[in-house]
């Protein structure tokens, strides 16, 4: 009998410019890379070409190979046989259509990052002027916060921001506080206000400051996530590690994460090792390596790329929006609006004239324009809907919003 | 666990003999292979594609919640019933006595004071709602009767808005029977960018069968002359809507539309059956004949589907896509919490559109009977009444919670309203269910025939809908 084989509704074949491709399974989250040979076969099968026809169209393929390949797919539950051509309605949320139908389109902020101050007494190596880049530039102070001209977010403005973003369905708020031990009361006032708005998640990013027990305990009274930045400059990591021993003793420490900033691999490895031994029950640790700008491209080119797992939402969303910038908004202490904390060349407006942020060329357009389908190097790459991309880093290194300079894929 | 509960899907077999299921809770379609795999069904549950009954439990409804929802919907449009008078007596007209709950033909005009208040109210609400949805534009629609009978008022409204609300890019539209499109009217519409959609049921003999003057005389010739004028002025085809019933000859209508460059039929709709005995006039034989004709047309249509060769949709393409368009929207529902106010079915929230009657009372939309107003132009929206109305609605659909199509049934205020208030009529449900099933099969047949063509056609269809949606909401 003439049999057909089709990938399931939840499995997507995405071809690659090199002739290879990838299969995304949005049920399990897995992404499989496929060879050029496999890709050729899948392409035909997916356009309802029967198994026999595949054999006649690809004479260099042996029947046994084809059958065993397809059976492997079947065993892995990514597709099945049909006795006639069939229509497979792929499982995707059509964000493009949603955006183009006037009565459906609506702006949804997924995450708002708000900088409360630019004052800090610490002297992190990466800070001011910002000379370093890392994978987590947006959850660390990243050196862009600090300034000689003192600036705090006015309470009135902060209220304005919260009430504006709540209306755009924002559920996640991130507050950046470089040095919580100056003007501590002010920051707690900000937190009080934030909690009144009933966001689903509030996260505070605390700079490299030596935070005292009183402040920490006060913070833990709030239902928020806390990320504390800790710079580890050299191999003497002992003092840097004392922080989590101290944190562990505090009730409710599960809400705290530590973000270690390191500058070289040796320190990084030592830290990883140490944490594995001494931190058995506890504090969530992120170790992020920062690289001097002039060495960054080289570093990234020589290190493996991070690829996320896939899902119905992310696979769909990433076809129309940038995976990180999509839905993101950043407010500096002035209330000025940017696409992200590190893309400060693209001011989109101010909270005092919020409507302007959403005009024709507004922030929501930016979310779409920066999607991987618009990045010249990535738009024909099979893993673009799961590849981790930091547009800010690329922009800083390549001085073009649509370039990819940290990937050596051909 | 789903294993104990019912799986909420609809199964159909396509023309080619493939079996598919529509998971109505998440608006997704699978081949019925999925039912054989416990692992895949587990994923459906885990990823919220099959909903637990908790998803459909009613939640608190109060004035604040309703207000927020209305604002989030961004006040889609203001519809002004500028007149109840009409110079036609179409045989299927909802105001012609066939529909028990609807008013009968009247001759009242809206006055300027009422219109002005309605406009000011709408823009006040719109500016408040704007903060919830910055990309929306205000939309003002003129409704009748035949709206152009009160053209003076339409003119005054548009001029007032242009002068008073300069910050807004307002979209204007009206649906007209086409006879009152004088040169003066056309010039005005053109100058102020008003999108006029004309009702045209096909060629002369088709159109004139239902669309007649009060003396019974057909209206086609008068309408058609004006369509040509309108099309010349706008330098594009005129958008029309085409209503049909059992006696309509789809073949003739299709030939007419495909050979008349001055018109594009954006929407084909059957005469509304709910709340009317309109269809009792047709004999069984007529119904059979209609179905036969439709089958023949479907055959033509299906045989013309091929690749992406055509860049325009012809009448039959639109006619058949109209019949099953919802099945082509890929808006998968993966939510774990039901964001809708009425957890089952899909009515709009009263107040989301503002329909203002000639007297200045506000109703849910132009299609519902005018027996329950939700405010007026003096006092604005009456949230207390809206909450009551929504609660009544929810009570009357409790039975829907265990219905196979609970999350996507198109029932709304208009349909469940009947002589004894609100309730869901079993016969209506049956008809909705069967229609959906038929539509589902049609959609699958089209997709099976040529998925690439389908993709292209649907994109074109929705592109023109962007225009049309503004008129036919
Ligand atoms: S960065 Fe772009 S080209 Fe490189 S692997 Fe990721 S998606 Fe592909
Ligand atoms: S693009 Fe995303 S990851 Fe990169 S800095 Fe901006 S917010 Fe952070
Ligand atoms: S033109 Fe419209 S309102 Fe007038 S009679 Fe016909 S259907 Fe009714
Ligand atoms: S078909 Fe009837 S029971 Fe089912 S959801 Fe619609 S109105 Fe409710």
Main sheet: strand order of chain B: 9-8-7-6-5-4-10-11
Strand order of the largest sheet of chain A: 7-12-11-10-9-8-6-13-14-15
What does the average pLDDT of chain A come to? 91
What proportion of the residues of chain A is helical, as a percent range? 25-40%
Please write the CATH class name of the largest domain in chain B.
Alpha Beta
Provide structural commentary.
- The complex is a heterodimer of chains A (410) and B (473).
- Chain A has 410 residues and is α/β, with parallel strands linked by helices.
- Chain A contains 14 helices and 15 strands.
- Chain A has a 10-stranded mixed β-sheet with strand order 7-12-11-10-9-8-6-13-14-15. A 3-stranded antiparallel β-sheet of chain A has the order 2-3-4.
- In chain A, a hairpin with a 4-residue loop joins strand 13 and strand 14.
- In chain A, helix 5 runs parallel beside helix 6.
- The relative contact order of chain A is 0.12.
- The radius of gyration of chain B is 23 Å and the shape is globular.
- Chain B contains 14 helices and 15 strands.
- Chain B folds into 2 domains: 54 residues, no CATH class; 293 residues, Aldolase class I (TIM Barrel), CATH 3.20.20.
- In chain B, 39% of the residues lie in helices and 14% in strands.
- The longest helix of chain B is centred in the C-terminal third of the chain and has 24 residues.
- The chains are: A alpha/beta (410), B alpha/beta (473).
- Chains A and B meet through helix 4, helix 11 and helix 12 of A and strand 3, helix 1, helix 13 and helix 14 of B.
- The complex binds iron/sulfur cluster (4 copies).
- The site of one iron/sulfur cluster has 10 residues of chain B, from loops.
- Chain B: InterPro entries: Aldolase_TIM (IPR013785), MoaA_NifB_PqqE_Fe-S-bd_CS (IPR000385), rSAM (IPR007197), rSAM_sf (IPR058240), Sulphatase_maturase_rSAM (IPR023867).
- Chain B: Pfam families: Radical_SAM.
Question: What's a quick, concise take on this entry?
Answer:
The complex is a heterodimer of chains A (410) and B (473). Chain A has 410 residues and is α/β, with parallel strands linked by helices.
